[in-house]
Amino acid sequence: MNTQHSTEPVVTSYAQAPTRTVRTRGVEYAYRELGPEGGIPVVFFVHLAATLDNWDPRIVDPIARHRHVITFDQPGVGASTGTVPDTVEAMADDALAFIDALGHEKIDVFSFSLGGMIAQALVVKRPELVRKLVLTGTGPKGGKDIDKVGRTTYYDIARATLTRSDPKEFLFFNRDATGRAAGKAFVKRLEERTEDRDAPIKLRAMQTQLKAIKRWGRGAPADLSAFTQPTLIANGDNDRMVPSVLSTDLHRRIKGSELAVYAGSGHGGIFQFHDEFAPAAVRFLGGGE
User: Fold this and answer.
1) Are 209 and 49 in contact (CB under 8 A)?
2) Which domain CATH number covers 68?
3) Where do the AB hydrolase-1 domain residues begin and end (predicted)?
């Protein structure tokens, strides 16, 4: 396993974080580490069709100034080998294998969209692993209209193709003047890393992820009242992909959770309002002692 050494300067810019690999259970996982060594790491769980390059540096960098941050590609995604499973629960098993391979016995979780579904399944499987939980732009198993994510995704990919835009500008942001500007700024930030960029996700891998999301949406709800981790939930108030009402549902079902809803934004509300959300996430996560 490759790890940062204490003699190396601490990297706190995601654009500069080196890509590493670790092999376990026949899969080579690609991941990046940054921030100060030691303590409980914050492991980031990324969204549908996303790779290591899809994390907003305006979210990652403020957290990495105080905490050890780890991002990774699930099997079959980006530079990781293996294949994408067709259930969220199997994705959680893969995430657990990766975390175990790095030797961490306790983590904090930052998750977005599909990543939030995987994070919930992971907590159900191994609750003692997770100390704090951040769920953004996501919803519970069996949640209203989650099984329609694929329809919305394909529709917006088509719209983006017609306008030669990035699909995330349609999927994550409102189509008003403010949302359009926020979407373009977000996509531009994702291009700040110019070297050692990740491989894009393959179409078949994305299609399998969408199948898993549909199964999640049609599955029997988990008992989230059993979650004891301090939990921060956030979304925009007009999420077309994972309806905003599901964030309220998560807040109601996870005892003691905090809820932040950003008015005038969609699925990517935390990216549009990164200047408000990132400090809130830093405060919530606290130190890694």
Assistant:
1) yes
2) 3.40.50.1820
3) 42-271
pLDDT in tens, 179-191: 999 999 999 999 9
CA neighbours closer than 13 Å in the CB half-sphere of residue 220: 1
Q: How far apart are CA 173 and CA 186, in angstroms?
A: 10
Number of domains in the chain: 1
Contact of 265 with 173, CB cutoff 8 Å: yes
Strand order in the sheet with 19-24: 19-24, 27-34, 69-72, 42-45, 107-112, 130-136, 231-236, 258-262
pLDDT tens digits, one per residue of 87-106:
999 999 999 999 999 999 99
Question: Could you tell me if residue 63 is inside a domain?
Answer: yes
Distances (CA, A) of 1 to 4, 71, 255, 260: 10, 15, 38, 37
Domain limits for position 29:
14-285
